[in-house]
Every structure is written in C-alpha cells, then in structure tokens.
Amino acid sequence: MDILMDIYIDLENLLKVKNVSKNKVCAACKLQRTQLNNYCKNKVSRIDLAILARLCEYLDCTPNDILKLK
C-alpha cells in the first residue's frame, strides 16, 4: 500500500508566529500582494525557489519552516 504525503505551505502561520506583516514581506521580498496571498493560502501549484529563498532569508528560517508534510 502506497502512502502519499502532500506538501502544503504554512507561510501564513509562520508570519503570525514571527509577527511580521504581509506588507513588510512584500516589500522586502519584492512580491506582489497577490503572489504572497497565494503562498499564504496554499494556492501555488509550483513553488518558485527564488521566492522561497527570499522568504527564508527575510524571515530567518529554512524551507522546512514554510513547507510542511501532511
């Protein structure tokens, strides 16, 4: 029996934990608000690694803090 795991983006929760506003993230990571909202609402089918790297650098975290398995 194969067990498939899904990866989801837990960015919205991380922003709350770190108490960082979406406006600051957008400005620092050069993202449009719509892009960030899509990441926060897990509506991204292909993750842009450059965006992930910028988010990790700005939020001082690793991809494991943003991407989760369920």
Automatic annotation (TrEMBL):
GO terms for molecular function: DNA binding. Residues 11-66 form the HTH cro/C1-type domain. InterPro entries: Cro/C1-type_HTH (IPR001387), Lambda_DNA-bd_dom_sf (IPR010982). It comes from the Bacteria. It holds the Pfam family HTH_26. This is HTH cro/C1-type domain-containing protein.
